[in-house]
């Protein structure tokens, strides 16, 4: 699978639950941080979008938990982009443990942009440049 972006991480002790594995909610932090770093890498900036009246929001997240990470595990979060319909932007994100390249997470994150004044969905030109045409 071709990815647009990837980011390396290492599990910190406080991200683990009583079972000694990464808490399920922490994976969403990893995914979100990767999306934000990707957006920055392509020249978009959430603060600037907001100042220009564009609110980028997550509409839906689907996560398949395949295996668990433990404290000290190194891993990579990979991302590829796409479109779903005319208004939605999609991030396909996968997490792989670095030591054995086993897939930990498979996720699909659907996002949209909302005009701050009208509250209606919009498709900013700069997003078309990154995600392609519908």
User: How confident is the prediction overall: mean pLDDT?
Assistant: 95
CATH homologous superfamily?
Answer: Hotdog Thioesterase
Q: Would you count the extended β strands for me? A: 6
By secondary-structure content and strand pairing, the structural class works out as alpha+beta
- Can you count the helices? 3
CATH architecture label: Roll
Low-confidence stretches: none
What percent strand?
Answer: 35-45%
Proportion in helices = 10-25%
Question: Outline, from the CA principal axes?
Answer: elongated
How many discrete domains? Answer: 1
> What is the highest CATH level, the class?
Alpha Beta
First-last Cα distance: 21 Å
What does this structure look like?
This protein has 134 residues and is of the alpha+beta class. The chain has one domain: Thiol Ester Dehydrase, Chain A. Helices cover 23% and strands 40% of the residues. It contains three helices and six strands; from the N terminus they run βααβββββα. Strands 1, 2, 3, 4, 5 and 6 form a six-stranded antiparallel β-sheet that branches. Strand 3 and strand 4 form a beta hairpin. The radius of gyration is 16 Å and the shape is elongated. The mean pLDDT is 95.
In short:
By secondary structure, this protein is an alpha+beta fold.
Labels describing this entry:
alpha+beta, Thiol Ester Dehydrase, Chain A, 23% helix, six-stranded antiparallel β-sheet, 3 helices
């Amino acid at each position: 699978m071709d990815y647009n972006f990837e980011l390396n991480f290492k599990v910190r002790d406080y991200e683990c639950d009583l079972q000694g594995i990464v808490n399920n909610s922490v994976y969403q932090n990893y995914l979100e941080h990767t999306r934000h770093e990707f957006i920055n890498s392509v020249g978009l900036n959430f603060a600037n979008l907001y100042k220009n009246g564009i609110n980028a929001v997550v509409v839906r997240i689907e996560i398949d938990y395949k295996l668990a990470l433990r404290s000290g595990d190194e891993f990579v979060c990979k991302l590829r982009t796409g479109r779903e319909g005319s208004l939605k932007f999609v991030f396909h994100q996968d997490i792989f443990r670095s030591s054995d390249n086993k897939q930990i997470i498979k996720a699909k994150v659907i996002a949209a942009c909302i005009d701050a004044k009208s509250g209606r969905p919009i498709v900013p030109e700069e997003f078309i440049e990154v995600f392609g045409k519908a």
